[in-house]
Design goal:
Chains A, B: One of its GO terms (biological process) is pyrimidine deoxyribonucleotide catabolic process. Chains A, B: This is 5'(3')-deoxyribonucleotidase. The structure is a homodimer. Chain A is α/β, with parallel strands linked by helices. The first copy, chain A, contains 6 helices and 5 strands. In chain A, helix 3 runs parallel beside helix 6. Chain A starts with 7 loop residues before the first helix and ends with a helix.
Chain lengths: ~170, ~170
């Protein structure tokens, strides 16, 4: 969800500017971990625990159309490692209902880690989720994964759909 | 979670008596589906959407001790098909933090259906979850499953622990 269908990077950068008055640019954080993206190392974590953060995330460009296209040929599940942030659970559900109303409740999973999720493919931005996945991992481009190249990388939703459709 | 570590049957029966003034006894509902357990067929579903229902569920007898025992030899995940009832998500998380504080957030999963959950064992009261499970299903006794016998049945947590410990 975060970093794949929800644009957490843009939200983090906007919130940092609003809260700290410092504009951080995407090219400045390439290759950094999420807890090192800002001068104040605690900021990102603080934002993730702030009510409203997850409810107001921008949709990742192309995500809505891509998921709709994939649903023609795949059973699509939305899996979010959300349990660390309890206040995010109802926010994430409302966000999905607003932005992805065609995803039914049966296909939504909120978990702690993703190690027990068993699907054929997983599109994720985090190495920690992809490394232990038993199906085919697909790494969605994110600032924090640009220096990791041991999974198949897709740079955007157009590439993700194209890759998956070669596996039909 | 419901019907396994949380005693939903007792809660349903108590709430029905309080709301409708009619006492239903456990032996009267043996073999009935959940939507047929009460004279008013809508009651159980109405309760499940009522704030407070999931937050105040009694703990299933023996569940706390059993989960603690199992955690000595197993990675225990709490998986709840909770997504149909959005108001239950924060309630279920608070309930777990109160009653099972030794279960960390990494090991909690709230989902729609359980078809993508990949563990070695699943203890569940619902045939719909057990029938499609790829590991070893363990059917926890419940009023609505007494006429189903195609999964290994455990009648209580003592039997569940004993069965799992033969698989170490």
């Amino acid at each position: 969800m975060d970093g794949v269908i929800a644009d957490t990077e843009t939200q983090f950068i906007n919130w940092y500017e609003l809260d700290y008055g410092v504009k951080v640019y995407p090219h400045e954080i390439l290759g950094r971990e999420e807890n090192e993206m800002f001068p104040d190392k605690e900021a990102a974590r603080k934002f993730a625990f702030t009510p409203g953060f997850f409810r107001t995330l921008p949709v990742m460009p192309g995500a809505v159309e891509a998921v709709q296209t994939l649903m023609e040929n795949f059973d699509v599940y939305i899996v979010s490692a959300a349990m660390e942030f309890p206040q995010s659970l109802p926010e994430k559900l409302e966000w999905l209902q607003e932005n992805f109303p065609f995803i039914g409740w049966r296909n939504i999973i909120f978990c702690g880690d993703k190690s027990v999720i068993n699907t054929d493919f997983m599109i994720d931005d985090h190495i920690k989720n992809l490394d232990y996945f038993k199906g085919k991992p697909i790494m969605f481009h994110a600032f924090h994964n640009v220096n990791h190249n041991h999974h198949h990388r897709v740079n955007n939703w157009k590439e993700a759909v194209a890759f998956l459709e070669t596996h039909l």
